[in-house]
Design goal:
Number of helices: 8
Number of domains: 2
Mean pLDDT: 90
Strand order of the largest sheet: 2-1-6-5-4-3
CATH topology of the largest domain: Nuclear Transport Factor 2, Chain: A
Helix content: 25-40%
Radius of gyration: 29 Å
Shape: elongated
CATH class of the largest domain: Alpha Beta
Strand content: 35-45%
Number of strands: 11
């Protein structure tokens, strides 16, 4: 039994008597925890893949990734049902294969590649990824993905050609101007569409949208030109159209024109305009 004396000597010796809390080797705990995610996903063992995830984990897919639509995924259940199940059912042979781990304290950076074939399009994907994990005490609390979202989206979109959809839109609007009937025009929009015809006014309800188009078809407008300038795919069911437009009167004179940016979304298999902002 060790007895510490009083006084100055006692103070010095007490330091030796105190119990020193062991230091946690965060790096030694972090890497194995992250490895279980890839091992479990590859084996189809969801219990293993989520075994080291905190109940409060926050998982973020890269901005522009089609699967970022449900960001942030909060908790293992949201990750499994909102992400892992979709990857497993929408792709053939989807893999996320790590090639290098960089570990510093409770931070783990993983470099690797995604591969797979999207079932709906038959298009293959092979792109690099970087995953950033935060793993305090060996439990994963945060995840951030970085990857080639353009190639990822392209594989899911495939070769879909929406030119017919855009031409039908143009024909519908011109026919409405000729007949003063806006019913078909209004069907182009989603039920919660937001429309700004001038970059200043904003219509957010179906009634406001209907009133605007009634005013258009009853105005001196008699013809128009709609030119698609660019299309950017955001996801298999969403793209942005950049459009140049001109509105003409009965004599063919320009009434007004400019550019418009439209967000299209596929709802129940049909393309609709969800956002339309013109200048």
């Amino acid at each position: 039994m060790r007895i510490c004396k009083s006084g100055l000597v006692s103070s010095i010796l007490l330091a030796g008597c105190a119990t020193v809390a062991p230091q946690i080797d965060e790096a030694a705990l972090a890497k194995p925890a992250v490895e279980t995610v890839y091992e479990g996903f590859a084996a189809g063992d969801i219990a293993l893949a989520t075994s080291r995830m905190s109940p409060e984990i926050v998982w973020l897919e890269a901005e522009g990734n089609p699967y970022s639509d449900l960001n942030p995924y909060q908790g293992p259940e949201a990750i499994v049902n909102g992400l892992f199940v979709r990857l497993a059912t929408e792709w053939d042979a989807f893999t996320a294969t790590p090639s290098e781990y960089v570990v510093e304290d409770d931070r783990v950076i993983v470099f690797g590649r995604y591969t797979g074939t999207y079932k709906a399009t038959g298009s293959e994907m092979d792109v690099p990824f970087v995953h950033a994990y935060t793993v305090p005490g060996g439990q994963i609390t945060a995840f951030q993905q970085y990857t080639d979202t353009e190639t990822h989206t392209a594989a899911m979109v495939g070769d879909e050609d929406v030119s017919a959809v855009l031409q039908a839109r143009t024909d519908t609007i011109l026919r409405a101007i000729e007949t003063n009937d806006t019913n078909e025009v209004l069907k182009l929009f989603t039920s919660n569409a937001v429309y700004s015809p001038d970059g200043d006014t904003l219509f957010t309800t179906p009634n406001e949208l209907a009133a605007y188009w009634e005013a258009v078809v009853n105005s001196p407008a008699a013809d128009g030109v709609l030119e698609v300038v660019d299309i950017q795919w955001l996801a298999p069911d969403a793209f942005v159209e950049l459009q140049r437009y001109e509105v003409l009167d009965a004599d063919g004179a320009l009434m007004f024109g400019g550019y418009a940016s439209l967000l299209w979304r596929k709802v129940d298999g049909v393309w609709h305009i969800a956002r339309d902002v013109s200048n």
